[in-house]
Amino acid sequence: MTFVITESCIRCKYTDCVEVCPVDCFYEGPNFLVINPDECIDCALCEPECPVNAIFSEDELPDDQKDFLQINAEFSQIWPNINAKQPAPADADDWKDVKEKRQYLEE
Question: pLDDT tens across 58-103, in order?
């Protein structure tokens, strides 16, 4: 099983979750983070650290977010690894409560 980053992370990209990951399974895109499902050890440390509740266990993934399992798997093969907390985008707080942000996902 793996943890999955969902739509709520788009344009927020807080990296509090990255800081607690013991296996460095996070990858960073232009405005979104993903978890490599083959590297995630299901430790659950990242989930409570996310300030926008964007991280779910694969088994608890909401139905409307299930495609993010594939998105995480795909982009973790392309994007660079991130293993330290970074500053959030300047407008992250403006986006943290916005719903339905899929169209803003930058590849």
Answer: 999 999 999 999 999 999 999 999 999 999 999 999 999 999 999 9
Q: Look-up: residue for tokens 């399974």?
A: 25
Give the number of domains in the chain.
1
CB 34 within 8 A of CB 76: yes
Of the candidates 102, 14, 22, which has an alpha carbon nearest to the alpha carbon of residue 65? 102
pLDDT one-digit tens code per residue, 24-70: 999 999 999 999 999 999 999 999 999 999 999 999 999 999 999 99
Evaluate whether 12 touches 52 at the Cβ level (below 8 Å). Answer: yes
Domain at 50, CATH number: 3.30.70.20
75: CB partners within 8 A, 6+ apart: 27, 29, 32, 34, 107
Residue 21 lies in a domain: yes
Please check whether residue 27 lies inside any domain of the structure: yes
Q: Within a 13 Å sphere around the CA of 12, how many CA atoms are in the beta-carbon half?
A: 26
